[in-house]
Write a structure and sequence with these properties.
The chain has 239 residues and is an alpha/beta fold. The chain is built from 7 helices and 11 strands. The longest helix has 24 residues.
C-alpha cells in the first residue's frame, strides 16, 4: 500500500459532524466511525492535530431577547468545543491511539494548557493532539483557530472537513448546476466570498502558505483518501 503523502496534518471538524442525524449532542456511533479512520491514519505514521467546533452543543444567539453578549456567547461556544474534544479523545483512545487535549483556556482537571512546544512534542511522539477552546479569545472562530494551530505546529496541510465534496460557486443543494472547483487561490476564495473558511482564517493561511483541502468527511474512507493524496475535494493554495 502506498505511503501517506503527508507527515503532519491539522484536521478541522465542525461540531455538527459529531451529532449524527439527530440535531444536537454527540452521536458516539458517528464519532466512532471517524475515530476508526483517524486511528488507521495514526497507525500509518501520520501526525494528526484536530480542531473541533461546538455548534452541536451551543451556537451564538447574539441579538435574541435575553441572549448573552457576543464575548459571553463565544466563551460558551469555546466550552462546547471542550466537550466535543473529550468525546473524540475517548473514542480515539478506545482504539489504542494515545491522545492529548490541549485547551486555550486553562482547565487542568480535563485538559492540558495549550503551549506550542508541548503540542509539537506530543505530535512528534505520535499522539493525536486535539486543540480545544478555539483561540481562547472571543470574536475568533474555530476556523481561525485551525489556521493558527496548523501554522504554529508546522502542519503540511489544513484539512477542512465538511458535508459536501468541495467548494462550489453556489450552494449545490439549492442550485443543481453549481460548479465545483478542483483548485482555488486564497485571493479568489476571498474575492468571491466562497465561504471556504472565514476571511480571517483564509488570510492567515495565505500569509503562512498553508494549503487547505476542503472535502466531504461523511463519506467513509475519505480521511484516508485525502491523506494518500487522492484528488478529492477542493485545494486552496497560492495567490
Amino acid at each position: 500500500m502506498a505511503e501517506p503523502v503527508y507527515k503532519r496534518v491539522l484536521l478541522k471538524m465542525s461540531g455538527e459532524a459529531l451529532q449524527g442525524s439527530a440535531p444536537g449532542g454527540v452521536d458516539f456511533g458517528v464519532v466512532g466511525g471517524y475515530a476508526d479512520e483517524l486511528a488507521a491514519a495514526a497507525a500509518e505514521g501520520v501526525q494528526i492535530g484536530l480542531v473541533v467546533g461546538g455548534g452541536n452543543i451551543f451556537r451564538g444567539a447574539s441579538g435574541l431577547a435575553g441572549a448573552p453578549d457576543r464575548p459571553t456567547g463565544d466563551y460558551m461556544g469555546m466550552l462546547a468545543t471542550v466537550i466535543n474534544a473529550l468525546a473524540l479523545q475517548a473514542a480515539i483512545e478506545a482504539r489504542g491511539v494515545p491522545t492529548r487535549v490541549l485547551s486555550a483556556i486553562e482547565m487542568p482537571p480535563v485538559a492540558e494548557r495549550y503551549i506550542r512546544r508541548r503540542a509539537t512534542r506530543h505530535l512528534d511522539k505520535g499522539r493525536v493532539v486535539i486543540f480545544a477552546a478555539g483561540t481562547g479569545n472571543p470574536f475568533f472562530t474555530t476556523d481561525t483557530a485551525a489556521a493558527l494551530r496548523a501554522s504554529e505546529t508546522g502542519a503540511e496541510v489544513l484539512l477542512k472537513a465538511t458535508k459536501v465534496d468541495g467548494v462550489y460557486d453556489a450552494d449545490p443543494k439549492k442550485h443543481p448546476g453549481a460548479k465545483r472547483f478542483d483548485q482555488l487561490s486564497y485571493t479568489e476564495a476571498l474575492a468571491r466570498d466562497l465561504r471556504v473558511m472565514d476571511a480571517t482564517a483564509i488570510s492567515l493561511c495565505r500569509e503562512n502558505g498553508m494549503p487547505v483541502i476542503v472535502f466531504d468527511m461523511t463519506r467513509p474512507g475519505n480521511i484516508g483518501r485525502v491523506l494518500h493524496g487522492e484528488p478529492i475535494g477542493t485545494l486552496v493554495k497560492g495567490g
